[in-house]
Structure formats: structure tokens, C-alpha cells
Design goal:
Structural class: alpha/beta
Shape: globular
CATH architecture of the largest domain: 3-Layer(aba) Sandwich
CATH topology of the largest domain: Aspartate Aminotransferase, domain 2
CATH superfamily of the largest domain: Type I PLP-dependent aspartate aminotransferase-like (Major domain)
Strand order of the largest sheet: 4-11-10-9-8-5-6-7
Low-confidence stretches: none
Largest sheet: 8 strands, mixed
Length: about 475
């Protein structure tokens, strides 16, 4: 088939635009796919590079493609309705105890059901697992450490691993002393230790709304109360709402993800992050920073941790390798700020130490540079999956559905019509071989009944596409039932 007709009245660049559109209609190009490079298409069509460039710029102007620095042009999802901020809909909140534990337990249980497409768990590493590289490094480590592999390690973790992590923070301008850091059993233990450093049973903890249900359960397990603060789909916690909350309630601590919220995928600007820390330290309120997704940003450079802006040592940063390299290794860390001694004491009492073999392996992974190379590929695949998943949801769900456009991470936050309760068809979805996370699990007070979180942290295959079609059919079914009730 002849792509270009030099005698046609249309400009050549417009014919290239039409060619790309036809490839998309024919299914040869899908949302998230990378377009041919300028030189490759120029050579293929025997046309100048500037003409191809003009076509791509026109496609970008129309919102059909996006350009990524030092990477190229990518096809965007065409039909997805982006979920917009709704601050005027926020009704405020009061400190509450968790009411959705049974549903949270069902979401966790569904992850391990056989023959089920697990879209209810956020597992970015599944998109690009580094298992072979880590297995090779672990064999090398075992050959050197011998019996030390089964011995207890220092309660605050491997010094070499802490030093490598400290170097990474120092590269971002954060003055971290590796001797202050604590290696933990995943980010969840880091968050637990941090909470116990700054609050006690009965205290009020301010959280994002919506908020990852693991944090909600953690607050409940420690006998504390959660207080929701409106969080924007684009740039995180609303500082104006937070200020009102601090004036109205005796908030003991805040627990926020300033870089890549789960489930929104929102990202605070550096200026807003700095203002947040200044506001909290003015009130002498600690900030527990959940930074587990910080390395999974989609554009620009890595967001700087809130720890950078702390002047009083009231920021405690928690992170791990669970979302970026090895969830099964359960290796996380805590930068405790002024709470170093309490953190180390709680770590000793809570779990004594963290397995050394996994720590040594991840230390080698950092030292060889393989971790950063892995992150580069992982981020690209997550961006690709995000676009494809948004397009699939837009195609197979009711047209009223709105979808988040995350700035990082591995999940989409989907809003159905207000009268639909996604928890109502959770079990039916499981019976049909697909799991998701109902919106109610992300709010201790039961908000977000008509929302759902769907993970695109998957290895893409036909089963994933069929799973989205199944969820779309259920969304249609329960929307019609609710309307006729």
C-alpha cells in the first residue's frame, strides 16, 4: 500500500498524520506504543526528517501523542475521560476508626486465588521482574558469606546497604547519615515504627483521602484514629484543607505520600512539598513520609523527598524495594529524623533484625548499577501499561466513567456513577476470574463507594485485556440495576 501521494492536494505531513491514525484504527498501533523514530520513518517513506517531525508535532498538538525526552513519541489513550479534582465536593471528615476491614481482607485474599487476574494489588515489579539478575547476585553472595547467611545481623541493618541508600539521598541534596537509618522488614514495618515513635493509642493521625488501605489498617492496629484530608488527583494533599484540619483537631502526626500517592498517582510540586513541611513544623507536628513509589515517577527527575525541607527533624521517611525490585525480599528502610533512638529501640523490640542475605544481595544490585538500569526499563513499561489500561477501560466501561492519569506508580483510580457501589460486584468479579480493589477500602469513613482501583502493574497479555472487559461488563450491569432500583 502506498502511504504518500506526492501529487495529492494534502500536505505530506498531513498524510503522515492520516497514516498514523489508520494504523491505530487497524489495531497496528495501540495506546502506549512508541511511534517509529523520525529517522526510521523518514527512511521508510523516503521523506525528509523535518516533514516527519512536523507530523509528530501536529499529532502532539491534537493530544494524540506525547513526546518523552530522549525517548521519542508515544501514542496516547484517545477515549479516556480523565478524573478531575473535585475540591468543592469535599464534605470534610472527622477522626474515625476503620470500618472496612473485612473488605480489605477479601482484597488481600483475592491476590492469591488460582486462575485469577490480580488487578487488586499494586505490584509494579511484576511488569518487569529482575528475578534473574537478583538470583545471580544472591548465588554470588552465598558463595562468599557461607554460614553468615543464616546468622542474625545488626538490628538497624547492613552498614553497606545503609551507606548506599544514604548516598542516593545525598545525590538529591538530603543530608542523610547512614548510621541513623534503620533497615526494616518492608515499608510497612518502617511505617509502623515511625507511627510508634510519634503517637500513642487514641491519637489522631491525618491521612490522605483516598489513602492506601494498608496504612488505614496499620493505624487501626495501633489503636489510633484516622482523619482524612482532601487529596487532589494531580498534586496531592490540599494544604488549605490541612490547615483547617489542624485548627479544628488535635492532630498528633500526618502520614502522606508526597511523591506518587496510592491510589491517585498524584505528585506534589517541590514548592508545595516545602510549604507542607513548613506548615507542619510550625505546628510541631511530625510528617511520616511514605516514599515507596518515589522512584516510579513518569516524567522529569525523581521527586525530592520531604526530608530535604525539614529543619526540626520532624520528617520520618519510609521506603522499600518492594515496589521497585523485590517485594518478596521484604527490605525497607526508615530515616527517623530526630527520633533515631526511639526508632532503633522499637525495631529491636519488634523484630530484632532483618534478613541479611536479601540485604547483601540488594547492596550488590545497587553497587553494580543494575538497579538503576532496571528502574529505567520498569518506568517505561509502566507508562506503556498505563496508557493501554486507560484506553481499555474507556472502551469497555460505561462512558460516564472517569479515570485518573497518574504521574507515577502502577494503579488507576476509576470513578463510576455515584449510585454504583463497586463493593457490590467484588465477589462476582472474583467468581469470573478477576480481582480489583473497591473504593471503600481506601477510606476509613466509607467514602468512595463508586470508585475502584485497578492495577496496570502486570505483564501484559490477552488475559489482562479480557479481565478489563469483564469488569466493564459488571460496571454496566450494576449501573443499570442501580438505576432501575
Amino acid at each position: 500500500m502506498k502511504v504518500l501521494d506526492r501529487k495529492a492536494p494534502d500536505f505530506l505531513y498531513q498524510q503522515i498524520v492520516d497514516f498514523i491514525e489508520k494504523q491505530q484504527r487497524d489495531g497496528l498501533l495501540k495506546p502506549g506504543d512508541k511511534l517509529p523514530s523520525l529517522r526510521k520513518l523518514s527512511k521508510q517513506l523516503e521523506i525528509s526528517v523535518p516533514t516527519v517531525k512536523q507530523a509528530y508535532v501536529e499529532l502532539e498538538r491534537q493530544g494524540r501523542v506525547c513526546a518523552r525526552p530522549q525517548s521519542g513519541y508515544y501514542l496516547k489513550a484517545q477515549q479516556a475521560r480523565t478524573l478531575q479534582p473535585r475540591p468543592n465536593k469535599w464534605a470534610g471528615a472527622k477522626p474515625v476508626e476503620v470500618k472496612c476491614r473485612s473488605l480489605i481482607e477479601q482484597v488481600y485474599d483475592a491476590v492469591h486465588l488460582p486462575d485469577t487476574v490480580a488487578l487488586g494489588i499494586s505490584n509494579p515489579v511484576h511488569t518487569h521482574p529482575p528475578d534473574k539478575a537478583l538470583a545471580r547476585l544472591m548465588r554470588s553472595v552465598i558463595s562468599r558469606v557461607a554460614e553468615k547467611a543464616v546468622s542474625y545481623g545488626p538490628s538497624n541493618g547492613c552498614p553497606k546497604l545503609r551507606m548506599q541508600l544514604a548516598f542516593r539521598y545525598q545525590e538529591q541534596g538530603v543530608a542523610v547519615n547512614y548510621q541513623d537509618m534503620v533497615i526494616t522488614n518492608g515499608a510497612q514495618e518502617a511505617l509502623s515504627i515511625a507511627l510508634q515513635c510519634v503517637a500513642e493509642k487514641g491519637d489522631v493521625i491525618a491521612i490522605e483521602s483516598p489513602c492506601f488501605f494498608g496504612l488505614i489498617e496499620l493505624i487501626e492496629s495501633l489503636g489510633m484514629k484516622a482523619l482524612e484530608v482532601y487529596t487532589c488527583t494531580e498534586d496531592g494533599v490540599s494544604l488549605s484543607e490541612l490547615e483547617k484540619t489542624l485548627q479544628q483537631y488535635n492532630v498528633k502526626a500526618c502520614m502522606f505520600s508526597t511523591a506518587i500517592n496510592n491510589p491517585l498517582g498524584s505528585l506534589m510540586t517541590e514548592e508545595k512539598r516545602q510549604s507542607l513541611v513548613a506548615m507542619l513544623e510550625k505546628h510541631n507536628i511530625p510528617l511520616i513520609e511514605d516514599d515507596a513509589y518515589g522512584d516510579l515517577y513518569f516524567e522529569g527527575v525523581r521527586p525530592k523527598p520531604a526530608q530535604l525541607y525539614s529543619e526540626k527533624g520532624l520528617v520520618l521517611t519510609c521506603s522499600s524495594f518492594s515496589k521497585t525490585a523485590a517485594p518478596g525480599y521484604r527490605i525497607g528502610w526508615l530515616i527517623p529524623g530526630k527520633y533515631e533512638e526511639q526508632a532503633k529501640r522499637i525495631k529491636r523490640a519488634q523484630s530484632c533484625s532483618t534478613p541479611m542475605l536479601q540485604q547483601w544481595t540488594l547492596t550488590e544490585y545497587l553497587l553494580t548499577g543494575e538497579y538503576d538500569r532496571h528502574l529505567t526499563v520498569l518506568r517505561k513499561k509502566l507508562i506503556y501499561n498505563s496508557e493501554r489500561m486507560r484506553a481499555l477501560i474507556a472502551e469497555h466501561f460505561p462512558s460516564e466513567v472517569c479515570i485518573s492519569k497518574p504521574k507515577g506508580g502502577s494503579v488507576l483510580w476509576v470513578r463510576c456513577r455515584s449510585h454504583v457501589d463497586t463493593g457490590d460486584f467484588f465477589q462476582e468479579a472474583i467468581a469470573q476470574g478477576v480481582s480489583f480493589a473497591p473504593g471503600r477500602t481506601f477510606s476509613p469513613s466509607g467514602k468512595y463507594k463508586n470508585y475502584m482501583r485497578i492495577s496496570f502493574g502486570v505483564q501484559w497479555c490477552e488475559r489482562v485485556e479480557e479481565a478489563i472487559k469483564t469488569l466493564g461488563q459488571l460496571a454496566f450491569k450494576y449501573q443499570e440495576q442501580a438505576l432501575s432500583a
